[in-house]
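Standup, Tuesday
Yesterday: got the pipeline producing structure tokens again.
Today: sanity-check two examples.
Blockers: none.

Example 1:
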Amino acid sequence: MILGYARVSTDDQNLDAQTDALSAAGAQRIFAERISGSKRQRPELDRLLDQLRDGDVVVVTKYDRLARSLRDLLEIVELIDARGAGFRSLAEDIDTTTPAGRLIFHVFASIAQFERERISERTREGLEAAKKRGRVGGRPPALSEAQKAEVRHMRDTELRPIADIAALFRVSAKTVHRA
């Protein structure tokens, strides 16, 4: 059996184009929902996965309708595969019911994983280059060096309670402890 899955993120978006394409692709049953793809709990997707049987094929118009991230897509396709079913994405022309389709799916997944790692690598390189130029990222310190010295003086010499010092400088007790 061919089972279609259609999803839009908001109530004002329309499912008609997806359901029409899934029907044209031979979907005998279509599970449709209006919910963000970032939500892992998607009732219609869960229903579809529960009803999958050996030999079924899950069809989507585009793979991003099924999952928001590569990791999510791989997990869902793995669940589909574990039930003996196949996966088909119309826009990307991916069909895991064939050996060539499985190869293409895994090549795309590998390329996407490589790209994610490259983005992470470029971000680290950019942060290191900025650091070498004297730019420091992150949140500015709550206390200046002079204020930290004053906090230490109040704590050690005046023996003031941490809570009082924190209130005086309008910071948390944790910030005073770190100082």
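Example 2:
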Amino acid sequence: MPKTITLIMTGASGAQYGLRLLEQLLVLQCKVYLLLSRPALLVINTETEFKVPARASEAEEYFSTLFAAKAGQLRVFEREQWMAPIASGSAVADATVVCPCTTGTLSAIACGSSRNLIERAADVALKERKKLILVVRETPFSEIHLENMLKLTRMGAVIMPANPGFYFRPQSINDLVDFMVARVLDHLDLEHQVQPRWGETKQELADTFPANHLSGND
């Protein structure tokens, strides 16, 4: 059965990670609940060529068209939309990913503040013992950041700082982005062909998924 994934994008640098992940989740037939903070919209419009509308309904139409989502496959919610499914444990997604994740969001989740739907969705994932992945993008980390990451790790969250590897000899920024997106998809237990794994060639990867065609810069 296709998985339901909540994807939260906050205002850290690295909007490309979240956008590429959104694309791949839709390609892999997941149902996606998308939440965008106001700073996230600013970062997207600054770091990328995308111009995402601020209103959730318009952003839903924008991304659905951009990534060829099926009808009803993508839903975008407002930060104060408390009747959204992800506000309750009775309708929690299979997994929640915050990508990119600011240290402010990290702190709010660690404290369980739930002041808006972004924080509430992560809080619900924790209390329902669902997978929560935080792609933190900051450097260097302060003691506060490290303490919050340790606290959330002990709660069962996966802390995955946006630290792409170089052992596969990346040729472009897109290769570095795909490294992180592939790691997130691995932790979501989703088979993909975004990037070869250690010891695997691109041809071996293509042979494993001969019928798949992914958009982007693979």
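Quick observation on example 2: Residues 114 and 120 are 4 Å apart (CA to CA). Helices lie at 15-27, 38-47, 56-66, 103-111, 117-127, 143-155, 173-187, 202-208.
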